[in-house]
Amino acid sequence: MNGGRIQSSDTSRVSITIGIIVAVVAIAVISYFVFFAHSVKEQMTGFDPNRPVPDDATLRKRLTAEQFHVVRESGTETAFKNKLFDNFRPGIYVDIITREPLFSSADKFDSGTGRPCFTKPISPDLLTEQTDNTNRVEVRAKRSNAHLGHVFQDNTTPTGKRYAVNSIAFYFIPLEEMDEAGYGAYKSLVPPVAQK
User: Fold this and answer.
1) C-alpha 192 chain-centroid distance
2) If residue 84 lies in a helix (H) or strand (E), which one and from where to where?
3) Are 159 and 118 in contact (CB under 8 A)?
4) CATH architecture of 56-189
5) Residue 67: which of 92, 95, 40, 43 has the closest Cα?
6) Pick from 87, 99, 89: which is nearest to 54 by CA?
7) Hey, is 104 helix, strand or coil?
8) What pTM was estimated for this model as a whole?
9) Which of 62, 89, 117, 143 is 20 to 30 A from 70, alpha carbon to alpha carbon?
10) Which CA distances in Å does 64 have to 27, 72, 81, 83, 162?
11) What angle do CA 149, 153, 156 make, to 5 degrees?
12) How far is CA 46 from CA 72, 92, 106, 168, in A?
């Protein structure tokens, strides 16, 4: 500067400084959104046994009122008016709270009851069974304690059991999306053509 006048070299330095500041801020903003989107995706996809089970306040924000009513208040969907009772595509059924795989399409069958029904879970260790106040045997996900439905004796199935569950308690992950959704390790549980 000479006598209070801005010279062209001063203008260049100011412009360069402003350009660097704008670039740093833009990189910081982009990095934040990339990290934030990645962390949200991690929370919402795949199953991580180390991810904590969300509390009820978080679930009330994340789930619809009907989903919360079923999984936390032991509600029941209407037969034949739910999204998965007639779905026989190959894939897995995961807990809506933890995303833990609980049932495979390999074990799904049409019971004629208007509910998703399975002959068995992926592993019996993933579920708890207890008699409820209606003398039915309630099935809950062990990790999330989500109410899933009920299990009945059924002599028409290979296991002698029918797990009749609420479709709203699950996300269905189709076989062709399992890798992308973080469930590639479970593909061996799913035959290419589901049973009906």
Assistant:
1) 22
2) none
3) no
4) Beta Complex (2.170)
5) 95
6) 99
7) strand
8) 0.75
9) 89
10) 36, 12, 17, 14, 27
11) 110
12) 22, 12, 20, 18
Which residue bears the tokens 């549980």?
Answer: 189
Residue type, 192: P
Residue type present at position 140: R
Q: What number of residues does the chain have?
A: 196
- Note the pLDDT tens digit of each residue in 123-171: 999 999 999 888 899 999 999 999 999 999 999 999 999 999 999 999 9
Domain boundaries, the chain: 1-44, 56-189
DSSP string, 105-131: GGGEE--SSSS-EESS-S-GGGEEEEE
Contacts of 67 (CB under 8 A, 6+ apart): 96, 168, 169
- The two three-digit tokens of residue 71, written as one number: 């999984």
> What tokens appear for 46 in the block?
């795949």
63-85 pLDDT, tens digit per residue, is: 999 999 999 999 999 999 999 99
Q: Exposed e or buried b for every residue in 82-119, given b needs 16+ CB within 10 A?
A: bebbebbebbbbbbbbbbbbbbbbbbbbebeebbbbbb
Tokens of 104: 């495979």
Residues 6+ apart with CB under 8 A from 117: 108, 109, 110, 111, 162, 163, 164, 165
